[in-house]
Amino acid sequence: MTYVTTERRGGTQIIRYGNPPRGFLCRAGCRELRQAFEACAADPDLRVIVFTGASDAEFIRHFDIAEIIAVGEALASGRVGPEVFEGGDFARLVNGIAKSPKIVIAAINGVCMGGGLELALACDIRVVANRVTQLGLPETRTAVCGGTQRLPGVIGMGRALDMILRGTIVDARRAVEIGLVNEGAEDAVARALEIAHELEILLPEVLAAAKACTRQQSEGALAEGYALEQRAFAQLLQDGPALDVLRAFQAQGADIATFEPPAIT
């Protein structure tokens, strides 16, 4: 199965991710996203990269729970160690976006939670379709943590802690209000392409310098923080109740937005 398709629009490349029927992010999909991004990043004729969903239902829903459970079981049995998360395709993708001299836009055209929102947070500009009803980091609902590093820099520490700890999910209107996204639009991809056109006519070396200088203050601390988050995620899967909660979620077949974790005794 192919998860990623690309489309060239002048100096802009659109990267679309799709994994029907639910739009989950998976390991193979992460690899394709990373490969597509790295190919774009190496193209000197490209100025802007736009990430979006192949379906209007999802940008990326969240990571595939079945795959997380499989990794958790491998951790619990000792077949792999916490380092399993280090240097993976997803980490390389989001870190590559932040460090790339290209300008990267997230055109959030559907549900965007967990790893999907982490990808969007790594982008330089975020546009959301007005009809989107679910953006968030609901990991704590499934007894793990994620998205802890980039969200505070986008919406502030207070709001980020509230959103992460409570697993809050917001709609497009609220996302604009709190600065989670830069703007809302009827058509997120069309608006992203308009912004891309504005950027294409500017000198690429100027944009690259402006991006690097703006991001420099936070990126150093992010590397250490991201490693800490990966270790915490692995530890919760290995030693905590996360596997039981994740299995309960999978068994219910519920939407994570409405999932009520079982009582842990």
Summarize the structure.
About 50% of the residues lie in helices and about 15% in strands.
Mean pLDDT: 92
Helix content class: 40-55%
Spatial arrangement of strands, main beta sheet: 1-2-3-5-7-10
Which CATH class applies here?
Alpha Beta
Q: How many H/I helical runs?
A: 10
* CATH superfamily descriptor: 2-enoyl-CoA Hydratase, Chain A, domain 1
CATH architecture: Alpha-Beta Complex
Hey, roughly how much beta strand do the residues contain?
Answer: 15-25%
Please give the radius of gyration in angstroms: 18 Å
Oligomeric state, counting identical vs distinct chains = single chain
Number of domains: 1
How many distinct beta strands? 10
Structure description:
The chain has 265 residues and is of the alpha/beta class. It has one domain (4-252): 2-enoyl-CoA Hydratase, Chain A, domain 1 (Alpha-Beta Complex), CATH 3.90.226. Helix content is 48%, strand content 16%. The protein contains ten helices and ten strands. It has helices at residues 27-41, 65-77, 89-99, 115-122, 151-155, 157-166, 172-177, 188-200, 204-239, 242-252; strands spanning 4-9, 12-17, 48-53, 58-60, 103-108, 111-113, 125-129, 135-136, 169-170, 183-185. The chain has a six-stranded mixed sheet with strand order 1-2-3-5-7-10, sandwiched between helices. Strands 4-6-8-9 form a four-stranded mixed sheet. Helix 1 links the parallel strand 2 and strand 3. Helix 1 (27-41) packs parallel to helix 3 and helix 2 packs antiparallel against helix 10. It is globular and about 55 Å long. The N and C termini lie far apart (41 Å). The mean pLDDT is 92.
